[in-house]
Amino acid sequence: MGKIILITGGCRSGKSKFAEQKLASIGDNATYIATAPALDTEMQARIQKHRNDRQKRNWQTIEEQINLAKAIEQANSNVLVDCLTLWLNNLLYKAQSNNIKFTEDSILEPCQKLIQVMQKSNFTTILVTNEIGLGIVPENACTRLFRDCAGQISQQIAHIADEVIFVVAGLPLYIKNSNNL
Q1: Quick check: pTM over 0.85?
Q2: Which of 3, 14, 47, 50 is flagged as catalytic?
């Protein structure tokens, strides 16, 4: 069974860079699963920069916005998923676009599928997510739902993860590791 590592932190905290360094330390053969949609020119430029950075490392890239479990199944190497928060955003947007009511319970099924696939994998899976529950309570229902669902995803994955790392100001704080299970 492969190892599962969850890396969380605030926006622009250095968590993605840390995750990439961790993945590179495991070995050269790697798959990067990107969940960000290119909705505007700023995101297109960011995505292109990340693509260029990954090419230098010779990592396989899978760009998947919705079916994260399938993307992990397709990988034949250690995996970095960046990021779960954007994946959640994509699921919420898809549901809203199709007039499907999305609740906090709606995230449970795709999250459980993701967990099952990771637990069956023989490779290490590193997942990046934003810690968004440290601020004030959002004023609108949609934003509260997003925050609550992100919290559910983080809790479920942290529970089964071998390691959970909180990154702040580019520095890792190990919350859970194989030595303290």
Answers
A1: yes
A2: 50
